Amino acid sequence: MNSELPSDFPYAADHAPRGAHPRRKGRLTVYFGMGPGSGKTSAILRAALSEHENGADVQIGVVETRARPGTEALAGQLAEALGGVSLPGELDLPGVLARHPALLLVDDLGHDNAPEARHPKRYQDVIELLAAGIGVAATIDVCALESRAEAAARITGRPVSETVPDSVMDEADEIVLVDVTPSEFIDRRDETRSLLGGRADVLPEAGLGERQLTALRELALRFMAERMDRRLRELKAAEPGQPDWRSTERLLVAVGPSPSSVRLVRWARRMAAAQGAPWMAVSVESPRLLTPRARRSLDGNLALARELGAEIVVTQDENLANALIRTAREHRATQIFVGRSRAPKWIDRLNGGSTVDRLIRLGGEFDIRVAPAGGAGDDGQDGGDFDRAHLSPIREYLLALNMLAVVSLAGVFAVGHVGLHAVGLGYLMCIVVLSLVVGRGPVLMAGVVSALAWDFLFIPPVLSFHIGKPEDAAMFAAYFVVALVTGELTARIRNKEQNERSRELRATALYRLTLSLADAAGPDEAVAQALAQCGDLFAARCALLLSDEKTGKLTQHPSGTLDLGEQPMKVAEWSIRNRKPAGRFTGTFGSAAGFFTPLVRGTTALGVLCIEVQPDSELALSQRDLVEGIAAQLAMFVERDRLRAAAEREKLLSESERLHRVLLDGVSHELKTPLAVLSAAADRIDDADAATRASLAGEIRIATHRLNRLVNNLLDQTRLESGALRPRIDWCDAGDLIFAAVDSVRESLAGRPFETSVDPDMPLFRADFALMEQVIANLLLNAALHTPPGTAISLAAGWDRPGGRVCFTVADRGPGLPLEMRDRLFKKFQRGDSARAGGLGLGLSIVRGFVTAQGGEIVAGENPGGGAAFTVYLPCPESGRLTT
Amino acid sequence: MPAELPLEIVIVDDEVQIRRLLRLTLEPAGYRVRECETGAQGLSEVAMRRPDAVILDLSLPDLDGVEVLRRLRDWTRLPVLVLSVRRDEVDKIAALDAGADDYLTKPFGGGELLARLRAILRRVTPAEAAQTVRFGDIEVDFSKRSVTKKGEELHLTMKEYALLRLLLQNRGKVLTHGQLLREVWGLRHEQDTHYLRVHMANLRKKIGSSAESRFLRTESGIGYRFLDE
User: What ipTM was estimated for this complex?
Assistant: First the structure.
């Protein structure tokens, strides 16, 4: 049904935020009926039979026939058709995922799973199955729908314990209404009863009368009607030229910690669904702190709202009405849903009207909707929650009473000397001090008790609550008010401060995280810092699991403080696969010790952050939000890092591709030329005369030299690049070095004026003799190769004493180096334009590699008076010098 | 030069083409050649034949060349010329320290091979254990411990003389830095290559002109040797 919805449809329930999810493959057909016994199970069995006949791979996930003869017969028929399978009592999730049928039958989506199952609810299994691409035919009662459960319970008089969030219905591609008239229903039931006898009385539909059946049917039909209505509206909205319906209505519901908020949330969801409008649940943090129980309850209510598809907004204000109006304006809501205040009228009047009154007065532009008065047990209020949410522990009350007792005792002894008014001031002081250390309740109690104690013990007539003189009465009244106001104000300031502190803590935490992610030297260090901060923040052990880009395999980051075993790894895998939080405090794998938050970027989860707090402490909703914030930051960071790595790889790849091409071209040319010479010379050598033979031998020698040089260059380059080159640094003598280098290239320098000079003060220096010999020989060869025959080449060794280095300069009188060449001169496979004969262009690259490996540098420059000059510098610190 | 009784050379190399080429090079020069394919074969051939020299490849199918060298050196001082494609100084030093007399990298020239072979063979010819050695204008008289250049006395220090003598006595053979330092300065100074550098530089300076200095060859990264051809 939803397959044609706009992709950013605002109902996006928490399970399946469309737009974030890629469209899942599995198709969900829901058979929807008014209650047990309406024929849904038979309907899916029949559908399965016909699918099977069409050749589809059908599997029975779970079917509950409840021993109804008709259903039993159908189930038997299907089981027969599928090859005599048995009917499973519980859904075997891993088994089904492994078998991967085209269509799976799942009866009664609202059913609670066995405690050891992967998800607490059967519908969560189904969501996972759909995500895995398995088609599902399922049944749901209207009674089991989260938003209708309460109404159904009121009709049947039986509480509904197993419910399905309405968002599951949004997941359905098709909803088939299985309708039956009450009279037909009763006929059918009577028939069953006659067949089953007394056993029929255990059927859930046994005790329902016609009136109740009609009410249930209406509930079911109305639900369908609302959906159809919405569908129509969507179709209309999808037409071009129509105004976007989504901008017209926006619902806002105030959520507090009271159990009645649950009803309020469901009501708002119903209304939102009926109007096809997005809705948000707003929780207003008051300056007063909530008790842990109220905090848990509030978290539960917000979680429910989220589950039902609401956007959650947490704001802070002293006044509920002001906060709601402000939030409504900020989020451009049009309707505000609140509960009734339970506070007595006179308190409302003191506060300038109840929350509802104030909402109506302040928010003229909004529709204010107050929860309808419910049936029995309805204490429908929500604003009132803030007034009674806080109860300090008993210890604080005891402390207050003790202090009052001490002050009273002191007062009894001192009243003769200082007078009863001074004692009153003593009480007041006691109240002020108390308000600094204890909560609001004990302070208010101390105010009242101290006023009474003052009256009873000190105001004449003593030991009675009667007040004799009118000025004492006035005094008493003033004291009472001052004590209460002081206590209230101090407590309020304290709470506000506390709230602000926790907010600031949160902001600081995220800020620090961002900073450390940006500052860290490498990705590993950044993650380590983030995890350490996480651990400090929540007093918890943390772990970060990153999924491999290719294989998707999860690996734990080494800097985590938590080692995940096999079971938690499964939770992590689930979390990353479904891109949803899992583990403790969530509906999935709730029994796990850790809280798992996926690192989601776009449509992929890059990893999972796992936070494990002590078993006896909790993560409040706000803290869990913070964890999600941190996870989002981390996700962004990890993604950035991966993109960077990918870009680098890409660059390397294209570069290496180019090099491969150049190498292949170059090597084939360089190899084939001397090989051609060898082959031709070998052919000719037999029948050649002595003179020709001699010159052929010369050619062969040249060709083999060339081949040898090429192979050596390639080997050297490989050695450099593979990092296998480890210079053996030792003492070298410049004369020795030059002697050896020149000796090895003597032939190539023949016929040129060549001179060498060595600085007479030249010290011994540290280098790899063999590498340096090759460096100088290569530079000389290079010079010989790139300059016209007969031009001069010189080699000089010098000592730059202040610079702490020695230098070797090979200079020629050739054409010199164009400026634009100098940069790329030392790169691989770069050949000089004036190079006469081949060469791979590896010579200078190797030279630079060797020089760098020894801690030196090479500079290409101009030879004064014309030509090029290459200078190699090697470090030779004065202190490390030896002149034995 | 080989007299009426030709010198016998054992070649240990697994490449048939190299063996053939060596035979083509050595036999016209008057040597008798025995070919072996594996290290084990080479060892037994040397033990049986008692050849005059061995040409040994380092990469053999069964044993490492250096290991073959070590086993040979357990019982014989016969000259061994190592022939290998490995051109790393580390490999060369390992082979020389294991007792090789010379090291030639492939590819090599036939002339060079014959020269090296002659040099290491001459070292062990008793007739060569002379009192005096001449090279270029230099004459060294071991009995008088004097070095003269064109009849003029060269004033060498103790160490310089010791170095020169060691190189001359091992003419043709590469002496590694370690070997030279050990012999001249003692075991404790085996690592002090700067002594060697300085003294070699001074020795070269005193001997003078590049013509004579060329007899004292620098084997880069490995050591020195005296080569008089």
Answer: 0.78
